[in-house]
Amino acid sequence: MDLDNLKVLETIQLEKEGPNGVGGGFINRLQVLENGNLLLFNFNKISEIDSKGNLIKNHEFNKETIKGYEWEETDALDNYGRFSPDGKLFMTRLIDEDYQKPSKGLAIIEVESGMMKAIKTDAFSKLDQYRISMVSEGGRSSMFAGESVFMDFDGDHFIVSNSAINEVYYYDFKSDTLFHKKFESSLTANERVINYPQTTETPEEFQKVMRQKMEQVQFARLTPQPKENLFWRFTRDQDRKIADSVVYKDVLTFFDSDYKMIHEEKVDQVPNSRISFFKDGMLYSFVNIDDELAFIRTKATISKN
After folding, report:
1. Helix (H, G, I), strand (E, B), or coil: what is residue 212?
2. Mean pLDDT of 118-122
3. Distances in Å between the alpha carbon of 17 and those of 23, 24, 55, 102?
């Protein structure tokens, strides 16, 4: 898409089968590498294609392809991780294949060699406390909903945040150290409260509890604004209730390049978008308006005082 003239320039037809086949599964995440190649994330593989749709490689990260790590029986890697911009590293969660045990931490994988390093952290496992499950007759979870985890590369760092707690983890590649920062907001809650049932038995009950949970604070991802050495983050929280209706408030928070919280304020008409990026000093947020692609553009004036 040409974002200056707001025109679609080209579409790429993907192939399910054949030499350029990427399969017919559920692709729910994309990533573009700095060389222009596109990564299509499926639940069991990641297909890398060029700008014309030609298949470059299928990436599979599992016990058969990974080296340098002693696997336990139910260890697995979450396929929905993040590649470094040059495509040389892949970072993701080290999880339990049946989601019956807590996540063990963060995995760093050298894509070419398959060598993996695991970093123990509770950055992911502590989010299990907020999970809502629907339990089948056999006592196992047949459906569950957890918190969103946001991961991205930031220069010499890899940053991890989530939707439930006002915090950020960042791994420093130079010092081989994982750091943790918690923040204090004066405008929203700083973490979710578990005031809802965590186990349900029917789809109707599951949806009801989910709506109850979503009345609480929800943190979005940190979106970098490189030219200003800033990160933006939107947060939504309950402002008040009128009868059975919830009135929400939206807060925009700024962080500096060292992940220090420097400013927060209430804002109106916040774009509800999971896809955001900066262009020409403005935040572009993707929205679907009656099946028409659109962007809401947001610009902030930041005082240096």
Report:
1. helix
2. 95
3. 6, 8, 11, 36
